[in-house]
Amino acid sequence: MSWHGVRTIAALELRQRIRTSRWPIVLVVWVVLIGLVTFLAYWATNDPDLRSGEAMYDIVIFFVLGLSMLIVPSLTATSVNGDREHGVLATLQTTLLSPWDIALGKLLAAWTISVAFLASSLPFLAWAWVEGGISAGHIVLSLLVLVLVLAVVCAIGLMFSTLTARPVASAVLTYLTMGALVFGTTIGFGLSAFLVTQEETQQVYGIPESWYEQHQPPDVDPADPNLTPEQLEEIKKAQTGPTRADCTTFTRRASVAHTERIWWMLPLNPFVVVADAAPSQPRKVNGYYASGFTPMRWISGGSRMARNGPDDGVKQECDNYVGDGGSGNESDYVDPFDAAQRTAPVWPVGLGFLLLAGVGAAVVAGQRLRTPIRRLPNGTRIA
Amino acid sequence: MSIEVQGVRRAFGDVLAVDSISLTAEPGEVTALIGPNGSGKTTLLLMLATLLVPDQGQIRIDGLDPVSQPTEVRARIGWMPDGFGTWDALTVREVLHTIAAAYRIPPDRARARTDELLATVHLEDLGDRRARVLSRGQKQRLGLARALINDPSVLLLDEPASGLDPRSRIELRDVLRSLAAQGKTVLVSSHILTELQEVADRAIIVARGRSLETQSLDSDFVATGVASWRIDSLDPQPLASWLEEHHVPANRVGGGLTEVEVAGEENAARLLADLVRVGIRVIAFTPSQGALESAYLAATEDRR
Question: Closest to B90 (Cβ–Cβ): which among A15, A86, A90?
Fold first, then answer.
């Protein structure tokens, strides 16, 4: 393998892409679509009290990721078996190029194009940044993660194009893999949540059931003038809410979902990786938390909550049921998403898995381009 | 710089493409590989071109093994596949520059070599056109230039003449002869026997994945090989009876012509003299099949 060889193949691939007229059109459609989505996001979330930068940023990043997962596989998914069909692969394999030159050259070319697509969405991310609420560091980190995810998508497409004889088959397999990563992991998590849900005894600090039983309204008509003083006392008791003083620690049986056993499915999803890498931070506007529409923050917080699993300690429910009679005030309230986001991120796990899959795919592709070939799969032609 | 193939065998699944082929191609010679469709010629060339591993047998190109030393072999060979595909979006010149880069030829030398080769294959005026617009014959010529870019000492050409117009065929013949004259080993597979006879020094006949015989195509072979001759005569009846009397294998072909099998030019001349002497009025006496064609038909006869 040599840089010269990789560059030769990458230059050949890029030159062919640029010469075929479809790609400039796709790029224009891409920019127009992202522009449209950015404008819509701006109008939908523009509020004088809320700066819409976060929402715009989340929408644009997710849209770019979704759209590139549709476009990028087509850059590599037919690249090797398509070349075989056109009879131009073997003429390169009989030169001094190594199989790694060919595999990495094709990968580099496809990656360059997908990074170019990503770069064309930069003005819209810059707009989100100007709108405020999101730091440049966040944008850089998401872009970095996106660039790596796109490289992995390219490598997976390349691998399938070396594994199947027909370009249609490899394109279908690549899109199925994308579908499995995006939807399969989510569906898998949702369905297996039932498997890890069980009845457990749980310690709770709050208002016990017995309190409510003691404060049942009596089975009498309150308008009846012939009530005894005991009955009137019971009616009065039933009308008051519980106070902080009524909170005790008690145990109860409840169904608990042990998502900490299945959380690993979530970060395999590229959307979770990108969302968790740089979610927007909640901030206070006029003394109130105002996060607006921030899907990346929700996904990020949700996956970290799933990873953390149910709390082992005493469940604090006192504040939920006690009215304003207690000492609880706004500053004591902790947003569960916010709490989850203070725990360790899950994206390194997901990105690690994706990078491992990408490297594995590239290695398979390089192996499959080796010549002389000993075993030729059915229906494959060499030249 | 020779090619040596010893008992090579290659199967694809349960299809036996090459059963047992052995051959030798010497430097300074053009060796022809002839055989019917599906006889294993292309598969053999793929193995020689370091693309396929033989199941059995040995291949040596300039003493090197294409399986264990593919890079060394690749530096020495030029391979022109049958049905040459090309990068349609690139110009003819760019195609050759790309291949030169793949052989790690420095850009300035690649440019000089490209111009030289475009002149050799008469594509100079198409150099800056897209490869897509080339006709089949022009693509074949580009394929030949591509195979020559690294100045190989061993040339493997799979059906180089298919799709070529008559002038290009004659030019191809001259190119092959001059390459052989430079001491290169040239192995050509083809169906077009009459042309091979003119360009090849040696012919290897293959059928059903086996090499049947090696025929040297020097002047001796032409002088002694069994060939068919066509006789047109004003006296067809006496001609037929005379031939029968003298046990000359003959049969009637269309247009009142008689075809006879004669071994060597010497005997053909004697037959003509005899016919004239007995008073049969011969108006035409011409060879109908080249000696190579006869040898090929004889060798592959079991197909019928």
Answer: A15
In a domain, A377, yes or no: no
Contacts of B53 in chain A (CB under 8 A): 372-374
ipTM > 0.90 for the complex: no
Asked if pLDDT for residue A201 goes beyond 80, the answer is yes
Which H or E element spans position B171? helix B166-181
The answer to whether the Cβ–Cβ distance between B70 and A92 falls below 8 Å is: no
3-state class (DSSP) for residue B92: helix
What tens digit of pLDDT does each residue of B185-237 get?
999 998 777 777 778 888 898 888 888 777 777 766 766 777 788 888 888 88
CB-facing half-sphere around the CA of A268: CA atoms within 13 A: 18
Cross-chain CB nearest to B66 (options A88, A372, A374) = A372
Report the residue count for chain A: 383
Domain-located, residue A188: yes
Report domain extents, chain B. 3-215, 221-303
The per-residue pLDDT for range A253-289, each reduced to its tens digit, is 888 888 888 899 999 999 999 999 888 776 655 555 5
Contact B85 A378 (CB under 8 A): no
Q: Is A93 part of a structural domain of the chain?
A: yes
Number of neighbours of residue A239 by Cβ within 10 angstroms: 10
* Residues contacting A332, CB < 8 A, separation 6+: A319
Q: Which domain holds residue A102?
A: 3-192+345-368
Write down the pLDDT at residue B113: 95
Q: How many CB atoms lie within 10 A of CB B273?
A: 9
pLDDT of residue A42: 84
- In chain A, whose CA is at the least distance from the CA of B72? A96
Question: Which tens digit of pLDDT belongs to each residue from B121-146?
Answer: 999 999 999 998 988 889 999 999 99
Nearest CA in chain A to B81: A383
Of B178 and A51, which is predicted with more confidence? B178
Domains in chain A, number? 1
| B221-303, CATH topology level | Alpha-Beta Plaits (3.30.70)
Pairing of strands B30-34, B185-190: parallel
- Residue whose tokens read 């005790």: A248
* Topology (CATH) of B3-215: Rossmann fold (3.40.50)
The verdict on a CB contact (< 8 Å) between B98 and A16 is no
